[in-house]
Amino acid sequence: MKAQENTIPKTMKAVFLEKQGGPFITREVPVPQPSKGEVLIKILAAPVNPSDIAGLKRISDPADILSVIPGLEGSGIVVASGQGLLPGLLAGKRVACSSSHHNSGTWSEYLVTKAGMCFPLRKKVSDEQGSMSLVNPLTVLGFFEIVEKENHKALINNAAASSLGRMVELIGKKRGIPVINLVRNRKQAEMLEISGSAYVLDCSDPDFINRLRESAEKLKATILFDSVCSYLLGKMTEVLPRGSSVVIYGNLSGEESIHFNPRSLIDNDIKISGFYLGNKTKESGLIRNIINLRDVSKLMSTDLTIKVQGRFPLDHAQEAVDTYLSNMSAGKVLLVPESKGARL
Ligand SMILES: NC(=O)c1ccc[n+]([C@@H]2O[C@H](COP(=O)([O-])OP(=O)(O)OC[C@H]3O[C@@H](n4cnc5c(N)ncnc54)[C@H](OP(=O)(O)O)[C@@H]3O)[C@@H](O)[C@H]2O)c1
């Protein structure tokens, strides 16, 4: 291992779940060492994402809980490199990074990860914004790859008041693809309308399904991206134009099964599939991924600013998660290892 900093401590603070279901606590653990092809990153900021929470809920072995450091993405400085060309090239760079081991996540002072899961941040991109530049932006670009490949004229996105939803709207505008934004209450609908979204539907409106039918038909919106998976999904699917696709990319409702009317799927030639960024990047190959990372980097240094509602030190991880879960649409919550106290 080559260290770029001679100040790397022996131990670090990291967030763990005390037991399944919580609370989040911090423990002092050894700073991990990068192996061949890996780098050690001093973390500057890391968001709380739905996938972090969902991932922890999926751990079934209580023993695993004790070793998992959450945090899928973040930003930081590469302070040590394992053997290899890429780790060497990243030495000393400020990067966006994604974790590659369950027991080394970004909710900690240091992260060890594969060098291929880091990319250098442009000067214009702040540590905070850079910490959110992988998971959601790359997912949205993946959506538009599907939209463009399958030649959809417009798209529908559910849970559209999310950070990801705001990016879908932005890219839709840039590429001339109308987006029908589905939200769960009137307050979110107003928020989106004020921010300039032309098509917003409130799922709690008693006439929602009819409105969806009309808007989808009018705009020829033949693809629905859904991250909620509520009981309404089956009903929504029944009113999509013939030949539509439904892409499920999240399960915010926590529903374990969804009811679809088989007759309507057959008669209307509806295709249902799942989307997971990890699988998509494997399928896309190196060149496509490099192009997408470059596009994200450009976007983040120009038009894309992700809303942040609070910053918390690692010791306040439980408060950070509670703040986030109590109002996800208010913006992302970040864990900032060097911050001295909570800042809202
Ligand atoms: N498949 C993939 O590869 C992939 C990659 C990235 C993200 N995702 C998914 O994309 C979704 C959005 O992520 P994000 O980081 O942008 O989230 P976010 O900014 O934290 O926002 C979450 C949004 O979902 C809403 N929401 C939460 N529970 C809901 C429910 N039961 N019904 C309706 N709306 C609900 C929240 O509304 P309130 O404010 O009212 O709670 C909020 O507007 C998540 O499901 C995430 O897992 C998937």
β-strand number = 16
Gross morphology is globular
Given as residue ranges, the uncertain stretches (5+ residues, pLDDT < 50) are: none
State the CATH superfamily name of the largest domain.
Medium-chain alcohol dehydrogenases, catalytic domain
Structural class: alpha/beta
Q: Radius of gyration, rounded? A: 21 Å
Largest sheet: 8 strands, mixed
Determine the fraction of residues in helical runs and give it as a percent range.
25-40%
Number of domains: 2
Q: Specify the number of helices.
A: 12
Task: Please identify, by name, the CATH architecture of the largest domain.
Answer: Alpha-Beta Complex
Strand content: 15-25%
H-E order: EEEEHHEHEEEHHEHEHEHEHEHEHEHE
CATH topology of the largest domain: Quinone Oxidoreductase, Chain A, domain 1
Distance between the terminal alpha carbons, to the nearest Å?
38 Å
**Mean of all residue-level pLDDT scores:** 95
